[in-house]
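lol ok so funny story. i was supposed to be doing the assay writeup but got distracted and ended up predicting the structure for this chain instead. priorities right. anyway since i did it might as well share w the group, maybe its usefull for someone
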Amino acid sequence: MIHLGEYNTLEILRDTEPGLFLGDGDENEVLLPNRYVPKEFEIGDKIKVFVYLDNEERPVATTDEPYIKKGDFAMLRCNQVTSFGAFLDWGLVKELFCPFKEQAFKMKAGGWYLVHCYLDDETERLVASSKTNSFLDNKELTVEQFEEVDIIVSHPSELGMNVIVNKTHLGLVFQDDIYKDISVGDRLKGIVKKVRQDNKLDISLNQIGYRNIEPNAEHILNELHDNGGFLPLHDKSSPEDIKEILQMSKKSFKKAIGSLYKERQITIEDEGIRLV
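and the output, tada:
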């Protein structure tokens, strides 16, 4: 079967005037237009292509790599808005359509939006939706506390930043756990800090508990090496100064320098910390 919105590895069946016809072995065929035909090929070769619908709603293959595929999330630029909806640049000749009903906020030409790509059951077309929460489910979790996860920054809330967890669940990074600038669409690593009774996920951008000491200590050592072996920070420094210089909380900083001091890698002076 040839899958729309996905990469397919297909066999080259025949060379024709408009391009190569590719097949999946089950008598399903799709055209790879001449502009994408490799310089060297042989009938029977396998080729990896992305399949979507062309301007005449016919399946077509391309060797171009789209910015998003079916089931994924990505930040896309809106090229134009018509009476039908918005059309987004996803790296292919034909733009990706986002109907008005699937826009969390009305899109404007030139704007960037986090969207989900899916196959519409009614039209059998690939479309985009900026209502990303509609494609996330926390009823049955596939993650556990302290597990490392892939996150995509989704949208801000009064408590912090909502994030998409492993392209499946909705999570929240509380404002107190944000120690660096993050923006909608950023792809980061996170840790499941807490699983609440209602299956809501608290996500941390830093390691948790004892897992937090070693990476933060290493980060401080790197900063010391980059700054001549001295940093003007100590356990009496303000949380704001620590956050500005090291992008970590004061609590994490104190744990880290305590570990480094015990290992005799630093000395703690009145003006700051220094490499031994």
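The two ends are 64 Å apart (CA to CA). The first helix runs from residue 213 to 226.
back to the writeup now i swear
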